[in-house]
């Protein structure tokens, strides 16, 4: 598959990544991407950027090295009610792309029901476009419920290449993603593959994801990465459906 976009990447601003915005975007261009998302960790991760970083992202060009750039954040889900670690005002005013996920550094792992509720609340949030790495067996969730919620809300579930790497601290990702993808195929729920790159050499490298998709014979038409326009339409659909629901 020809991956046109990689929406989950981190730079030195996240505190534990090792390349600059320019280096990450250039790497994406060299690997043939048409769009890259720079999504620094939000509050809750040790050493990450202050909120002022997000306020000033307007100075960063949205096109560099011939590819489009979306500046955003990977926001922490803090509790079972889906509370986010960035304010609604900051999300609305500053972020082109909004990812949310659970990190055990700032979340007390609960039961399957509690963890599932936390993610579903984020899925239902009109400000969140993508759920990051819903694959760690240390944070067990009910995939039937998650996939159904993603379908209803047009929120994208991530297939995280980093989770599948043998160096990852996440546990059981291969098996959990198999479960999630089979449900997504059955229910026609689109997914997005991301690298979760913390260094430039990983940008746009979907080696593990490609093997997983091939093993499952996962339908290419359900993978958002094949088209920038498709990603933008799905995000717009998600934000609009929630807005309509609120007005109704």
What order do the helices and strands follow? EHEHEEHEHEHEHEHH
Shape: globular
Class per helix and strand makeup:
alpha/beta
In which range does the helix fraction lie? 25-40%
| Sheet of most strands | 8 strands, mixed
Number of helices: 8
Termini separation comes to 40 Å
- Rg (CA only): 16 Å
Poorly predicted tracts of residues: 244-248
How many strand units?
A: 8
Roughly what fraction of the amino acids lie in strands? 5-15%
Mean pLDDT reading: 96
Protein name: Phosphatase
Organism: Candidatus Anaerostipes excrementavium
InterPro entries: PHP_dom, PHP_phosphatase, Pol/His_phosphatase_N, Pol/histidinol_Pase-like
Domain Polymerase/histidinol phosphatase N-terminal: 5-79
Short recap of the structure:
By secondary structure, the protein is of the alpha/beta class. The chain contains eight helices and eight strands.
What does this protein look like?
This protein has eight helices and eight strands, in the order βαβαββαβαβαβαβαα. The protein has helices at residues 21-30, 51-55, 88-94, 112-124, 143-153, 173-187, 207-216, 228-247, and strands at 5-6, 35-41, 63-64, 67-76, 97-101, 130-131, 156-160, 191-194. A hairpin with a 2-residue loop joins strand 3 (63-64) and strand 4 (67-76). Helix 4 runs parallel beside helix 5 and helix 5 (143-153) crosses helix 6 (173-187). It is globular and about 40 Å long. It starts with a strand and ends with a helix. Residues 244-248 have low confidence and may be disordered. This is Phosphatase.
């Amino acid at each position: 598959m020809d991956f046109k976009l990689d929406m989950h990447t981190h730079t030195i601003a996240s505190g534990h990544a090792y390349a600059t915005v320019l280096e990450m975007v250039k790497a994406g261009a060299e690997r043939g991407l048409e769009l890259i998302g720079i999504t620094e960790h939000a509050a809750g991760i040790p050493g990450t950027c202050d909120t002022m970083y997000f306020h000033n992202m307007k100075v960063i060009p949205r096109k560099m090295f011939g590819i489009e750039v979306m500046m955003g954040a990977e926001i922490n889900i803090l509790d079972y009610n889906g509370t986010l670690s960035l304010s609604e005002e900051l999300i609305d005013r500053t972020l082109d792309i909004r990812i949310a996920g659970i990190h055990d550094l700032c979340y007390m792992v609960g039961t399957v029901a509690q963890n599932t509720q936390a993610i579903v609340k984020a899925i239902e949030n009109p400000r969140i476009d993508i759920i990051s790495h819903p694959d760690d067996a240390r944070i067990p969730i009910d995939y039937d419920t998650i996939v159904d919620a993603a379908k209803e809300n047009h929120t994208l579930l991530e297939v995280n290449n980093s989770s599948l790497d043998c160096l990852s601290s996440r546990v059981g990702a291969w098996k959990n993603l198999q479960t999630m993808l089979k449900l997504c195929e059955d229910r026609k729920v689109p997914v997005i593959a991301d690298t979760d790159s913390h260094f430039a050499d990983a940008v746009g490298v979907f080696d593990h994801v490609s093997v997983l998709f091939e093993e499952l014979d996962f339908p290419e038409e359900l993978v958002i990465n094949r088209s920038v326009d498709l990603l933008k339409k799905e995000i717009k659909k998600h934000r609009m459906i929630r807005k309509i629901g609120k007005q109704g």
